[in-house]
Amino acid sequence: MTPRRLSIPDTPAPDTADLISRARGFRVRIAVLDREIQTALDTSRDRYGRTVDHRAEATARARRNQTALALYAAHLVPHADPLLDAARSTLATLPPARHTGAWRDLLDALAASHTEITGALERPAAEGTSAEREQHAAMWPHLVFWAEHGALAADLADPARLNQQPGSGLTAEERQMWTEMAQAAQQRRELDLIESWYAADGRLITLAYLVVDGTDTVVALAGDPDAPGWEVIGQFDNEYPASRALPRPVPPGVLRADAASRFNRPETAPEQPLHDLLQDIVEARGSSEVAEALLSATHMGYAAGPMVQLAQLLDTAAEFSHALNTVQGRQIGARLETLGRQFAFLAREVHDAAEDLGATVAVLPPHRTPKPPRIRSRPALDTTPPAPPARTASPARRL
User: Fold this and answer.
1) Over residues 12-19, mean pLDDT
2) Distance between CA atoms of 195 and 16, rounded to whole angstroms?
3) Following DSSP, what letter does each residue of 54-93 receive, concatenated?
């Protein structure tokens, strides 16, 4: 078989808006493809998530890899380099902040992935061979990386989005006045936060409703609203003029820098749903069956049970809350950590109780008999249905 070269469009250099649209559109197309493939993969697994049809699974993944590569060839190959150049130009004009170095590394990684993808497109393996499937599979992580982080390049390619300066028009005296009013309202618990984001210079910007003389007004805060030192940097009639005047939001961060992509999640361990375990207990006749269900719910390590997973969920939510790096985030994170420890202790207690229950080797007493099912008897097919009751004549109505 001869190599099959995917066609790469030879188009003139697009404008910046088109570059941004292509990067964001590629992510949308990969998301649609991922949902389609996940649906196909579900048909190859049993109810507990174990793969039972390996051939169907391999076929679905091969189709995913080939389709994603074709999408990249059609939409990004001719335009990735100018998009990255525009992003680097904007990044060079931004004020120094903790995130700019990481953004520069991401752009370099996107460029390296682009080189790998174009190399595979220019030197394709023979069509229909195992070498082609291996080549496409090797490109999937690079394609996923672009789907996940190409939006950052798109945001950086728009200088107006990140270089916008605040234009609230407040003087220093007005800022101090509005700050004092907002701080007093916060102490009365009358400062209602609306939304928050980070600006390109690393400042945390928060919009809030402030009631002045019975009228709602919108103020913009710079800094952590629950920590000392924040101030009002703008006052507006509503959110629309605020969004026009304030610094635009930059892409938010991630909880774990080395976490798997949403498009490339690791294979999940087989698990027994909680409702199945509950039904197992309802249908059990002996203590060993109930003990087995409880031990499944509290199983540690690989294929962790639902109770253990819930404790892990609380721990991860606590990690997220701490990562917000705000006063409220740290306080809520501490609460979640405490709940996680309590739930982990509860899971261990349930595990110990399950082992004790299994050691009783007991069964339910025979007087707990099932009730007969409520089944209505049906007439035989040749039975004539009963005649309806005769209608009695209504008494004549006197006029």
Assistant:
1) 67
2) 29
3) HHHHHHHHHHHHHHHHHHHHHHTTTTHHHHHHHHHHHHHH
